[in-house]
Amino acid sequence: MTTKRLLELRVNGITHTVASDADATLLEVLRETIGLTGTKWGCLTGDCGACTVLVDDLPVVSCLQLASQVEGRDITTIEGLGGPAGELSEVQASFVRNGAAQCGFCTPGMIMSSEALIRAGVEPDETAVREGLAGNLCRCTGYNKIIDAVVEVARGRE
Ligand code: FES
Ligand code: FES
Questions:
Q1: In the structure, which protein residues have their CB atom closer than 6 angstroms to any atom of ligand 2?
Q2: Which one of 7, 66, 96, 135 has the fewest beta carbons within 10 angstroms of its own beta carbon?
């Protein structure tokens, strides 16, 4: 039997006390214990970016992050981006305007990485955004609409 330990995780501004295996990943705890299923299971090897969340505003692939190592940090998932009445965030709204999602599987991770770029003040420049999103794979869109969506938000911040 695996011993569980109690963790306090602050997710989207709410502290959750969860019983977790020592080797549980942040992705497992977010989805299976806390019930935030917007963060996607993809490759589980750090290659696709579908599981990206923010930890203290920085993008992290949650499939490779032990939950026990992010106690006391600010974790943001796709569920935490919009407003209290379900309003879309600026990045989410730009994805919709630009038609930047098709099947949607990559979209939460792509939006979290985009959000991190915007918070870090990325230049409104296609190359900079493309490089910033290089860790997020999309098999549907061809990337151009995604890049356009992020450049548009970055331009609006100038
Ligand atoms: S599921 Fe984490 S990078 Fe693919
Ligand atoms: S929209 Fe389908 S994988 Fe990106």
A1: 101-107, 138-141
A2: 96
